[in-house]
């Protein structure tokens, strides 16, 4: 079901992201008292009355300055407006109209979409009407006094907005796969996103730290829907100061948690760094499926041994993610980019797969017959009574044994290897919980006591 889009437009630091958070009913957009925090266009679901729609937060528009990211921000705002059914122009009621507002208003008057004028920071209802009246001179119709922080005045504005929002035609949907694109700064995450989408969806720049917010983009490929989540580059913790970057990285970690599959993007020229290893560990800790994407492969000088040597290096540096598939791509040329989705499909399927208890125990029986559990110095041998899958995403198994501490790390890794060998689970971590017989009896006993009560 494709929802109508409403673009939120305005110059820097007028409270656009705060207004988006108000409409979306959450605090997803980064809000910080600093111009230029929002750079890409970011999408948030919203509704009012009986209408559902998507609000698009855009970067602050400045038309008379071509420094740094400002031309790219203008491009993003123009793309957002081109796909919108309506726009809300946000201005600052406390400062009053200024030349920058007049430039944006002049541009908006030339656009073929209806534009509503929201005069933000009007916290006092009585004084707000006076503040808003100053903006009639922009020639965009009635100015609505609102407070994005407190929500006052937004109802009248939204009542007018939904008159311009078309009815949504529901269609049968397939289940989307959520993909978070994670990596260090400047490894090519936004370029990879743009290569998937086929347009300049995210701002791409050689300056690290370009992406601030997480950005959701929905694409469809061969009948499957994917939600791509671009994130800010994650630097070492010691280099991060409290502020915009701190919030951006928190958003990136949340993106890992809500993803089905994480693309860990590496820079082929840099190899695997210590920070890459930490990010891989974070993905495992969150229990997410993973595909390792080695980007900028076109920039590597190659001979017949290059890819084999690189794979050995990856295996050595990321040995704890040996279950993850690896693909070598170039986001700039598009080389093998679409093949990433094939690996994503396999990883997502493994991540949510469930195995019957009978199959689990067949695997355990076979594994034990080939390699018996270890025996302690006192002659006591570990015994596995049975196992069962207790959850998916990631696949999690509980093995009930006589005493968990009798099973050393080597044997536990052996059992995990047997699960992967017999059942697959390519692309996803699996978790095995070792439950001692005493713990099992205690758990059963507590259930029985609860039943009697």
UniProtKB/TrEMBL annotation:
Pfam families: KH_dom-like (PF14714), MMR_HSR1 (PF01926). GTP 1 binds at residues 10-17, 57-61, 120-123. Keywords: GTP-binding, Hydrolase, Nucleotide-binding, Repeat, Ribosome biogenesis. GO terms for molecular function: hydrolase activity. GTP 2 binds at residues 183-190, 230-234, 295-298. Belongs to the TRAFAC class TrmE-Era-EngA-EngB-Septin-like GTPase superfamily. EngA (Der) GTPase family. This is GTPase Der. It comes from Okeanomitos corallinicola TIOX110. The gene is der.
